[in-house]
Design goal:
- It is an enzyme of class 1 (oxidoreductase).
- It holds the Pfam family FAD_binding_2.
- This is Fumarate reductase flavoprotein subunit.
- It is a single chain.
- Among the domains are: 115 residues, Alpha-Beta Complex (Flavocytochrome C3, Chain A, domain 1), CATH 3.90.700; 127 residues, Up-down Bundle (Methane Monooxygenase Hydroxylase, Chain G, domain 1).
- The chain contains 18 helices and 22 strands.
- Strand 8 and strand 9 form a beta hairpin.
- Helix 5 packs across helix 15, helix 13 runs parallel beside helix 15 and helix 14 runs antiparallel to helix 15.
- The termini are far apart.
Length: 659
């Protein structure tokens, strides 16, 4: 039995994992990163449009600050977010942007003077100030009051990931590629590391650590069509679930991106619409102003996806062999803009569709994109129930996104959470309470259990094959746990997913190759994915309201009275067929911004009984504070500075003295 010891084990080599590793290493603790693929090929590289941070440099971002970003984030979450975490995030985001600039990310910059832009399908002239010349600029994104999304053309994730990859090398952090964590090693509510399989040799190794961090991204590949990379199967989240101790939060909160190309499902960035692109139907009609006259194509993602689906249901989609779709028109931006600022979109359209988006409309429709749910953590990024286990990025329910994420807030969360959580991990490791005293007998037990499971798949005589079961799971999720949901469909989904999970316990594989063996990998990952699918489907069935990306056609109102909470799921035991489901209350009395109207459609929600009282309390508090001191006003309503690592507490500087 091979054992590797380290201070911190980071599972996942994307932006969140690498930034966490760098932060911990800079505090003097040994760190190992495990990655399924070469780190610079992680799914983070697919982020195109940008990263939100309230710099306020560009003229269209003038007056932006943490307060505005916070309000946008909370409203975007449909009041499902942890508002203190949202405050921590919006406060640190400008620091993260500047840090990344120092590490070599070539953010687009403000150029003084007049320039043309497309806003609401019309060409307008924007004048940039001389004082902002050379500073980091921003583009418009959905659900925001200000232009706040910092970008590097449409290759933002790529630029960020390569900069962080270089920092990992500079700090001497080993990144072990083609390594997959199969199970967490734990006992008595304490995590000690993981059992890891080499995808090259098939060898199992136990990695023991004071702190274990999961940063493996989302679980989009439980759906038939997803913008996620093929590695985004949620297995990091699943191994936490399989401990029976770690909790998952909000697993029914699954976001669909409005503009994935048809049929491949590859993302075209929200930057297309942020820069002025528009959506058209089969008749060439720009339809979004008919539904959302104020925000139009730049309503929140969940809203745009639903409006597009509604429009296609009315028979106004474009017929194709791959189903109905709509058109994304960025030709209105002009060839120079498209080929310079939307280069990746141009390449995607050329390679996968054979068109030039500067001239041709792009076939798009809503497609699964992001997982708001994940491993439930506190504000420090540590599991609420399994000590020594941390999570950050899309694998975590931290919870700043609630039931809907704003575009640009996820790539921001990866690095911001990595910055914050790494400091708390380092504090944890510096404390003697993090010392591990684990017997090799326990470690051997976990390693042998995983090896026995692999041997059973290879030689146990199982009759089921992973392919057909997985295909059916993906169909169920896209058809019955998708953009629009009903109780009847969700009942069927849960029942059939239970049956598929039972069948997956009789899997067999034909290839006994010990090393690279895709058939074996597919077989041992499938039950984990089915468990996540069940968590999502069951959570959606039981949540009899509509909130953010979770929309129940039979319960179309947001119901703050009965459902202002986070769903919490655990897996009771290895042979169970369903997760345990509970709820965590989101207290209105602690909110800086009590539940209200998001600004889309009609005011269709049921008030929480404490909302009016909290609103009145806020008015009284503000009477005692200088109305011109926004920092004092915020601190009086909901203090959060004390929750941050001390190094990130100082205020952000801006061009405008009052910002």
């Amino acid at each position: 039995m091979k054992i590797v010891y380290t201070d911190v084990l980071v599972i996942g080599g994307g932006l969140a994992g690498l930034r966490t590793a760098v932060g911990v290493k800079q505090r003097g603790f040994d760190t190992i990163v495990l990655s399924l693929v070469p780190a610079k090929r992680s799914h983070s590289a697919a982020a195109q449009g940008g990263m939100q941070a309230s710099l306020g440099h560009s003229s269209m971002g003038s007056g932006d600050n943490e307060d505005v970003h916070f309000e946008d984030t909370v409203k975007g979450s449909d009041w499902g977010a942890d508002q203190r975490v949202a405050r921590m995030f919006t406060h640190v985001a400008p620091k993260a942007i500047r840090e990344l600039a120092g590490w070599g990310v070539p953010w687009n910059r403000v150029k003084q003077g007049e320039r043309e832009a497309v806003i609401n399908a019309e060409r307008v002239v924007i004048t940039e100030s001389e004082s902002a010349h050379g500073l980091i600029t921003a583009r418009d994104f959905g659900g925001t009051k200000k232009w706040r999304t910092c970008y590097t053309s449409d290759g933002t994730g790529h630029a960020m990931l390569f900069a962080l990859g270089d920092q990992t090398i500079a700090n001497g952090i080993p990144v072990m590629e083609r390594m997959e964590a199969l199970a967490l090693i734990h006992e008595s509510g304490r995590c000690y590391g993981a059992v890891v399989r080499s995808l090259v040799t098939g060898e199992l190794t136990a990695f023991l650590a004071r702190a274990t961090t999961i940063a493996t991204g989302g679980y989009g590949r439980i759906y038939k069509v997803s913008t996620n990379a093929v590695i985004c199967e949620g297995t990091g989240t699943a191994i936490a679930l399989e401990t029976g101790v770690a909790e998952l939060g909000n697993m029914e909160a699954v976001q669909f991106h409005p503009t994935a190309i048809v049929p491949a499902g590859i993302l075209t960035t929200e930057g297309c619409r942020g820069d002025g692109g528009i959506l058209r139907d089969v008749n060439g009609h720009r339809f979004m102003p008919d539904y959302e006259p104020e925000k139009r194509e730049l309503a929140s993602r969940d809203v745009v996806s639903r409006r597009m689906t509604e429009h296609m249901r009315k028979g106004l989609g474009v017929k194709s062999p791959y189903g109905d779709h709509l058109w994304l028109d960025i030709s209105v931006l002009g060839k120079d803009h498209v080929h310079k600022n939307l280069r990746e979109v141009t390449d995607i359209c050329r390679y996968f569709l054979g068109i030039d988006p500067a001239n041709d409309w792009i076939p798009v429709r809503p497609t699964q994109h992001y997982s708001m749910g994940g491993i439930r953590t506190d504000h420090r990024g540590e599991s609420t129930t399994l000590k020594g286990l941390f999570a950050c990025g899309e694998a975590a329910c931290w919870d700043m996104h609630g039931f809907n994420r704003l575009g640009g807030n996820s790539v921001a969360e990866t690095v911001v959470a990595g910055m914050i959580v790494s400091e708390f991990i380092a504090d944890y490791c510096a404390d003697s309470a993090s010392d591990i005293n684990v017997s090799t007998g326990l470690v051997r037990e976990f390693v042998e259990r995983e090896q026995a499971g692999l041997d059973r798949l290879v030689s146990g005589g199982g009759r089921e094959q992973a392919g057909p079961i997985r295909q059916r799971m993906e169909e169920i999720m896209i058809d019955q746990v998708g953009i629009f949901r009903t109780g009847e469909e969700l009942d069927r989904a849960v029942d059939e997913l239970e049956d598929l999970l039972a069948r997956s316990r009789n899997l067999g594989v034909r290839s006994s190759a010990p090393g690279p063996n895709p058939e074996l990998v597919a077989a041992y990952r499938l039950p984990k994915m089915l468990k996540l699918a069940l968590c999502a489907a069951l959570g959606a069935r039981e949540r009899t309201e509509s909130r953010g990306a979770h929309f129940r056609e039979d319960f179309p109102q947001r119901n703050d009275r009965d459902w202002l909470n986070r769903s919490i799921t655990t897996w009771p035991e290895a042979g169970a067929s369903l997760p345990n489901l509970g709820y965590e209350t989101i207290a209105v009395a602690d909110m800086e911004l009590p539940p209200g109207f998001r600004g889309y459609g009609t005011r269709n929600y049921i008030d929480h009984p404490d909302s009016a009282e909290r609103d009145a309390r806020i008015e009284k508090i503000l009477e005692t504070v200088d109305p011109d001191d926004r920092h004092a006003r915020q601190a009086a309503l909901m203090p959060f500075d004390h929750l941050l690592p001390e190094k990130y507490r100082p205020r952000n500087q801006r061009l405008e003295a009052t910002a």
